[in-house]
UniProtKB/TrEMBL annotation:
Stated name of the protein: Glycine zipper 2TM domain-containing protein
Signal peptide span: 1-28
Keyword Cytoplasm set for record: no
Domain Glycine zipper 2TM, residue spans: 78-119
Classification of source organism: Bacteria, Pseudomonadati, Pseudomonadota, Betaproteobacteria, Burkholderiales
UniProt keyword Signal present: yes
Length: 167
């Protein structure tokens, strides 16, 4: 009868461990948010014409400056958290007594490091171009683009409905 009770305790502990793992995973996925990439236009893309019929929104100018800027994206921490939970659960299955506690801690730390590395590997560096235009009326406008499509400083451009086109 003693081996049966021990088997039930072991099974109960594994069920609790798996339940905690599933709950932690659900919380991690539900609470983490990865910022979405900004939506940049494409130079020379077809403008979306307004139905107002006015041509007052068309302006002309020259490209005065182009800067390539990097978007800084930070880690959400979800990979480290998930890795720590999984590593802790796996480490908890090893040894008994003090050895189990050490294995759980080591598994959590190792899992956090590995989870963070996996999350970082999934992210790609991102950059965009900031195009400064001096309009013929003296105003300055700035546009952000993912791709310049050959646009250079000094190019004559047309601005219509917030779309920049080489002219």
């Amino acid at each position: 009868m003693c081996w049966l009770q021990q088997g039930v305790r072991t099974m109960t502990r594994k069920i609790i461990t798996l339940s905690l793992l599933a709950s932690s995973l659900a919380l991690t996925v539900g609470c983490s948010s990865v910022p979405s990439e900004p939506n940049y236009g494409a130079v020379g893309s077809s403008p979306s014409y307004s139905t107002s019929g006015t041509y007052d929104s068309v302006q002309y100018g020259y490209v005065r400056n182009i800067q390539q800027l990097d978007t800084s994206r930070r880690s959400s921490g979800a990979g480290a958290l998930l890795g720590a939970v999984i590593g802790g659960v796996v480490g908890n299955q090893v040894g008994a007594g003090t050895g189990r506690a050490v294995a759980t801690a080591a598994g959590a730390v190792g899992g956090a490091v590995i989870g963070n590395k996996i999350e970082d590997r999934g992210r790609q560096p991102s950059s965009y171009y900031q195009v400064d235009v001096r309009l013929d009326n003296g105003d300055f406008r700035t546009f952000d683009y993912a791709d310049l499509s050959g646009l250079r400083v000094g190019d004559r451009v047309r601005v219509q409905d917030n779309q920049l086109q080489r002219w």
